[in-house]
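[09:14] KT: can someone run the structure on this one? pasting the chain below
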Amino acid sequence: MEHQNASGAIVIAGAGLTGLMCALRLTKLHPQKKIVLFDRSSTPGGMYGSLTYEDKWKFDYGMHVIYESCNPKIDELYREVMPQEEWHIYEKNEKDIAGLYFRGSLQNYSHYIDLRKCSEASRERFIGSLLRNLEVPLPEDPKNAYEFLRNQFGPEIVDEIHRPLLQRMYGVEPEEMAVFATKVTALDRVILFDPSTMLDLMQSPKLRARLAYADQLNLPPLRTNDQKALYPRKFGMSNFVDRLCKHLISKGVEILTDTSIATVTQKNGRIEAVSLTHAQSGTRTIAVEKFLWTVGWPPLAKELGVQIADIKFQRGPAIVFLNLVFNKPLAMDRLYYFYCYDENFATFRVTNYTNYCPDASNGSAFPVSVELWPSKIGRNASELSLGECVQLSLDELKKFGVIGGEHELVFAQMESKAGEFPMPSVVNAKALAEIRSRVEKSAAANLMVAGVMAKDGLFFLPDVLNDAFEKLETF
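[09:31] RB: done, structure tokens below
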């Protein structure tokens, strides 16, 4: 690829959903500018892509719907790419129908921990602990997950429920986990009362911030926004990603896959050019006017030559996606997915695609994704074969009560592309903050960073895009 002698392009690193949506916004903010987007992967979309096996069986990377950002500048773009009639649009209580396997039974009414399952004596202690704790002043910036949870619920609930749960999931004590860990897997509320009692208790902001309503499909309309969830009517989130890419190309955006950075040239406090390498096409140098990075702080530090070798990260649980097809639907009621918090289970989450996209099934084949964290049962993910993972999943799905003797396995495939679940530990939060600080000290004036963890607490797509689009206004 020859040298490009342009005056400068807007270059975007990363073709995940953040990079793609930012590219679309930039076509409106700077319609005359050349925009080049590149990614090391062979397919755009990142974790919002899809997998297809044998030209027949399609799966997403677990549960991925698009939650609106309640920002018209973002949400209108979804309808621009795909018209209203091509989306499943889920509102209010149907936006996110999630469950939890806890203490030997599947909750189809909430994914929050239900402490009504405990003994009456334990429940009374838990209620007393929570109520006494309401008068304790809350710290403005809790140091770790334990401090946050203890201030939420009191020591009895945290020590008996949350401590062993976090130990099983991450292999460390809650004092070593960042507060963010409680948000990622919905540990910031618990169920203690029946819906009729909660209707009265929900009038208190302090209680509503700590207690969950035990009937998600009949939750009273106390929301502060009308956020919706979107999923293509045709099964596969890649249907949206493909349409988005075609839409970008029609607007002149250049999308380069299987492409990585060879060098970054900086001069006078700006990124002047990037050289991009493709295995077949060679190297191409692009003059840069603006550089948008969406691939995380550690890779950015490496490309900019910022020294971070002394900074160590704790590795997160290795994830295995087991994609299965059954001859019958799973007995999950209306749940889109459910988590498993019980000990002696490798399953982290089970996703039933058909429950939020009927097109996922042809009437005789029903795709399901089982996300395994083998470390939960002391196993090494890299040492498990497909057959072992299939047997492990089938055994646990039977224990959950979602498959029985009439269910036949039609197809199975194992994926480990996800690598590891990001470890939400205090050590990693501090490490990321230090890398961010070092990069920002020498950051180029024409560099913008967006995406997951671009700043503290950014993880979920609506927050990520709201942050990115706000920055784009002055980029």
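[09:33] KT: thanks! The first strand starts at residue 4 and ends at 13.
[09:34] RB: yep, looked fine to me
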